[in-house]
Give the backbone structure.
Amino acid sequence: MPVTRSQTKQQREQSAPYEPPQQIRATRLASKRRQDEQDELAIVISPPPRRPEALTNNSPKSRKRVRDEVFIDDSPEPRKRARSDSLTRVEEINESSPTPSANIAQLEMEKSRLERAQYEQNEEIEQLKALVRRLEGEKRELAYQNRDLRDETQGLKQQIREHEEDNENFAEDMSGLEKENDHLRELIGKLEKEKNLLEEQKQVQKKRYQLQSERNRQLAEQHKEITTKAENEIQELKHDFKKDLQEAERERESLLDEISELKGSIVGVSRLGKQFGDGKFKSSIDRVYHGIRNCFLTIVKSREFDLKPQRGNGTLAKLLSAQVPDYQDQTVNDKLHVCMTVVSMVLVDFANQHLVFGHPSKDLPTAAWVVYQKFSEIDNLTDEKSVKQWLALTDEIINKAAPEAMKKAKEGSRKHIMDMIKKSLQAATTLKLTDDILAIITRLVSGCLEDLRLLEFQEWKYKIEMIPARVEGEHTPFDLDSMEDIYAEESGLVKASVFPLLSRLEIDEEAGSQRWTAISKAKVVVMTDSLATNGSA
């Protein structure tokens, strides 16, 4: 007996595990939609039921063909049962039919009945097939759900393991925090003790201050008493020394003359002011060097520009050929060296102009500068200390008498040196000098202008100069006493001279000799194989 859809549904519901009502409704709706789609697909693609051939005779061969066509079930029991039923009906027809025409009519009726049975059986078979397909689909879905549940279970297990590890780490962290808290408590205890000790010291200092204040008050009272007593004695002595007034007046005038002479000598000594040590000028020059190097190192790495070839015997061409002989290679190092050298040469030229009162103009500082220039032209001038005193005194007077003029002169110096730097860089390179670049260079240069001016006020004689990298076609040997390689080399030939030397004159009066001592060494580039082949700074 075939299994109907309702029976299959009851069996599935009895064997299915418990599910929540919402999930059951969702599953049923999904299953119903899938079943409807599969049934429609089965109806569309299923072939029409086969109809048995017409029975034209009652031979055993015809009966066998009818049985094979009607009963298509492959199982042995249904086939045997159908065969026996068919044979029985055919034999009954043969025994009861007196004539062939009656047999044919009965066979036709049996044929129609068999066709209907076959059609119904085919429908049940198709329904069972659709049911099997639906069950297989549900089986696959259950398998997918089972796999998802397994994956989710594995994920939950992994999360549980991670949470356990986190709990262990948290326990370790808590243990460490507890130890740290213990340490902090100990530290707080120590700080409390130190605080108490400081409070005690504070009280002691307070008592000492009170005692000192009381002592000062007593001393003030004693001083007042002594002063009052002395004044009384002076008043008494005035009458006694009245007769010696003229002699005392003469002595007073003599003393005043001596005091005036002493004041003059004191003023002469004090006017030699504005004296500073070598460290001030060295730090100022080194600061400018590092600032200029970092500035142009950033520029050559971030901006594209070329070095202009210098033709003829111009001043810039001569200076560059002496300071950076191989700048025509157009490497990154060459660009850096040329830019640094141009700024350094402008600084040296500015320092050698001796603009002690600022850039010349029509104001009072210019007049003082002209006088100072005349002093430097005197060959037999031996008293340099007097000139330094005059310079310091004049600078002080002008700053008090014409502060705006001095300020204007210093601003003129700043503008003058920046104009020289800008023109020199434009003549030597194709670099576009933006406002940002000029602002950086101005800030760096302005920091050393005052120190370059103060060099003129020093009792010691200083000079600032560029050391040539090549003299008469030969590269200058590296001198560790007066040179410093920017790449920390210690020997070789000078490839480029990029920053000036600041030195001080030392005179040995006993030996009758003098020599220049380097305060800030000249910054050079020593010629090495790596610098000859590598263009990176």
Observations:
- The CA atoms of residues 112 and 396 lie 140 Å apart.
- The beta strands are 462-465, 470-471, 474-475, 483-485, 494-499, 501-508, 513-520, 522-526.
- The longest helix spans residues 100-240.
